[in-house]
Every structure is written in C-alpha cells, then in structure tokens.
Amino acid sequence: MGPGNVVNTLTKQSAGNLDSGSTQETTVPDPLCQGSSETTRAISYDKDLDQFGFYLAGLIDADGSIYISKQNYISIEITLHEKDEQTLHKLKKLIGYGIISKRNNVKAFRIRINTKAGVIRVLTLINGKLLTNQKIEKFNAACALYGVMPINSSENNCSPSTAWFSGFFDGDGHISIRNEYTLTFSAGQKSRDLLDLIKKGFDCGNIYFDKSWNGYLFSITDTKSIKKLMEYFENYPLLTTQAIDIITIKRILLFKERKYHLKNHPLKYRIDNLVRVFKKRLSRY
Are residues 151 and 258 in the same domain? Predict the structure, then answer.
C-alpha cells in the first residue's frame, strides 16, 4: 500500500471476539476521509476544515516551524518520525500543497510548504488557533508579509471541543505502559505554560519537572482521565500510527475491567500477550 493511500489496514480485534482472543484483518476507514469506525461521532477532517485547522495548529505547535528568510520568503515545515510518513501525505492531500522528503541522518520525514499560495492556505487554516508564543510571533510576521489578517488566539483552543490537542498529541504525545498494567498518556515541553493550558482545558492530569532533560511532563495515569481522553480521540481522531495504540489501549482497559489482570484469573495470559505485543511494537521506534 503506497504512502499516499488514505485507507489504513489495521489489525483490529472486534468486540465480539475479545473473549475468544481471535483477531481478524479489518479495513478501517481512515479518519481523514470517513471518520473513525469506532464511533459515528468522529469528525472528518476533509469535511470540517475548521477542525482540521485546529488539528494542524496543534501539530505545528508541537512539531512544526515557520521560517522567514532574509529575503522575506516564508516556508512552513512539519517533521514526523519515519513511521508516520503516511500522515504527511494525508496532510498534503488536505492542504493541497507541500513537498515531502526524507530528513538526512535521522529517522524522520518532513513536509515543506513554501509556495505563496500554499503558505497562505496554511496561515488561513491555523489563523487564531496556535497556542505557543514563539509560533504565534512567527505566524503574525508571516501574515504581515502575505496580507493575511491575524485573529487573536484563545486558550479555549485547547479544550475537548476542538481538534487542537489531537494534533499536538500526534506531534508530542506518547502512550506507554509502565510496570505491568499502568497505562500512561504523556506529553513534554521545555516550558510548562502550554501544559498548564492542557491540564486546565481537559481538567485532568498532572505536571512534573523532569530534570533528566530539564523540561516538564504532562501525565495521565488514572483510568477515569484516560477514558476521557479516549472519548476525545474518538471524536477528534489521531492521524499518526498512535491511532493503532488507541485501539490497543481500549482493549487493555476492557480486559482490566473484566479483571483479566488479576493474578489467578484464567484469562490473564490474554492481557499479558496484548501488553507484550504493545511494548514490542513501541520498542522498534
């Protein structure tokens, strides 16, 4: 399947087969075009360009850059791990502009938008939706050069009613399993200001200082908050391979509710196998 194909084939276990432990290959409609197969509430980014703009702004806040040359040429770039190259092709399809290339000496790909029409398209999509001060300053400067009227951003951009956090999490978020069954959703930043907005907007999580890299970590480990995020991601789907992780986490939550993780449960091996496969997949990256 080529990287530009907008239909992902995921190994998905149906709800009816969770107890039997069987799996089947299911073609899952890509959230870019048809919304998540897990819920009818999921928005389609190609049909709701306002929410796609929020997603794109969150992704740029996390992993994007706005460059202005000495000659006042503007380029907008987003870099993702090589496993998410297909996501860049999805973005190119929606934006309608961009060149995708492999980054030298790193396991990453980049989309670069540098035509005037393409830059104006992106500026229009993300107008009023960025949240990081450095990106907002660059955005305003780019708007001044290309005649786009900037809209003031609002901290309400980071809330369960917009796709901003989905874009941000696709860029800077991480899903992990600590110890045996402790599920963790986290995101890191050098400054805690943005993480405070996330914590306030979603009314969950904790923020810690991590001296190993002199930055801050927003972290969620309690089941109630994780379920809140899972519902959010159903409404505003992730576009990277973390969408596969969401499917796995939903299964693990179900298995824990059924007490499969308890020491003497006869089906404990099923949740153990799922956790082992999840950790093995993440270890490849």
Answer: no
